[in-house]
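User: Hi! I'm working on a homework problem where we have to compare a predicted structure to a textbook description. Could you give me the structure for the chain below?
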Amino acid sequence: MQFDIKTTEKKNTALVQVQGDVDMYTSPSLRDILTRLFKKNVNAVVVDMTKVSFMDSSGIATLVEGLQWSRKQNRQFILAGLGDTVYNALSLTKLDNVFTIHENVHQAYEAITEKNMKET
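Assistant: Happy to help. Predicted structure tokens:
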């Protein structure tokens, strides 16, 4: 599967749809997109990993950077649609307890909506 990233924004939330392997060759592209989004005024970033078939340590490091940026700026950073391979990589490093993870994008958006409603 060829690596590709698509981003869409609506209602102060960015959806980053990643496809293919996230490794030392492709993770810089993901990092660039996350950096650009955190420089914008989005309240939440959802990373849809439904179509990610493999992730190495550089991909995990990129996601950790995204989480750090979001915490510094008091924004939400949510992972959605993790397959077994990606989930196992996060689980082995105990990061499955650090990230906010939802089964799919729909649940991630519901969580964002619920948090925004509680804050108003």
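For your comparison, note the following. Strands lie at 4-10, 13-22, 44-55, 76-80, 100-102. The chain has a mean pLDDT of 93. Good luck with the assignment!
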